[in-house]
Write a structure and sequence with these properties.
The chain is an alpha/beta fold. It is 46% helix and 15% strand. The protein is built from eleven helices and ten strands. β9 and β10 form a beta hairpin.
Length: 306
């Protein structure tokens, strides 16, 4: 594989604080630059790059979707001619999607009294939407996002760029208590699947409690996060847990002997009544995004890459 591309993808694989959209945009740019350097990319090079993307961040649908585009290109007689417009379309979705989602989000908040919003971890799409709706939000409550501390990044950005939005930080264990006061629990997603969505570990319990007390749950994600079952099955079968679990030291630097440290980064949360999905096309139900997910063509080459 091209050494510059390998370095770019290795950096993305090590990044545990950026959101799926940010990492995917960086990966897409790296692939476009690679294509510019190597207009006649070979099938083997495409397959190697696809595998690197598959294992880099297996919870993040946009990276898996990019791997799929590389694998589809590898099956074409003229791979570069297929890949160039495919990457352009994908990049356009990721660049334009957040601003469109932000407009829908702002409209949904209405023009009444400014609202309290609860959110969890870090999502660039959620952050952009909050900032775009600053006049309609009084307070954002977020938790630390241990062990990576992504929630701190969220509130830091709100305080720096929110121009008047208040921000509160609490522990992950206590965040559910404050959903009582919020207008909505607003979450990002690393992927949108047929039966549920993937996000940071801890999302499921938070969602269940919010719905139990009658608070709506809004999941903000552009359509690059849609993940067909064929690709979802591949990441579930991936035996490499290094990308799914964080290092033991994040939980306990020097744990007692024989202690097993469990540090999962992501979990799937089932779609339940009360969950609304906001893409660049507007508000959707799980049933409404299902045809779009099923319409995504999955390369048969992917199955042999893991």
């Amino acid at each position: 594989m091209d050494q510059r591309l390998r370095r770019d993808l290795d950096t993305i694989a090590r990044d545990r604080s950026s959101g799926a959209s940010e990492l995917a945009q960086r990966a897409c740019l790296a692939l476009q630059q690679w294509l510019g350097r190597r207009p006649d990319i070979s099938r083997d090079e495409l397959v190697a790059a696809a595998r690197a993307l598959l294992i880099a961040q297996p919870a993040m649908a946009p990276l898996l979707r990019l791997a799929n585009e590389l694998a589809l290109a590898a099956g074409e007689s003229r791979p570069s001619q297929y890949l160039k417009p495919a990457l352009a379309r994908f990049s356009s979705t990721m660049q334009r999607g957040p601003s469109r989602i932000a407009r829908h989000f702002r409209d949904a908040l209405g023009k009444g009294d400014p609202k309290i919003i609860c959110t969890y971890s870090y999502s660039s799409t959620v952050l952009d939407s909050i900032l775009a709706a600053r006049s309609r939000i009084w307070q954002v409550i977020c938790s630390e996002g241990r062990p990576g501390g992504e929630g701190r990044k969220t509130v830091e950005q709100i305080l720096r760029r929110g121009r008047g939005i208040g921000a509160s930080l609490t522990t992950d264990a206590a965040l559910h208590m404050f959903t009582t006061y919020c207008h909505a629990l607003v979450l990002g997603a690393d992927s949108l699947e047929l039966a549920g969505f993937t996000n940071k570990a801890g999302t499921g319990a938070l969602v269940a409690y919010a719905l139990q007390i009658g608070r709506p749950v809004w999941v903000l994600a552009d359509t690059s996060k849609l993940l067909p079952p064929e690709i979802d099955a591949l990441r579930n079968d991936n035996s490499d847990n290094n990308a799914r679990y964080g290092p033991d030291s994040e939980i306990w630097a020097e744990p007692p002997k024989r202690l097993a440290i469990l540090n999962p980064y992501f979990e799937k949360t089932r779609y339940l009544p009360g969950i609304r999905i906001l893409t660049e096309s507007g508000w959707r139900t799980p049933a409404q995004i299902s045809p779009d997910i099923k319409a995504i063509k999955a390369s048969p080459l992917l199955a042999g890459l893991l």
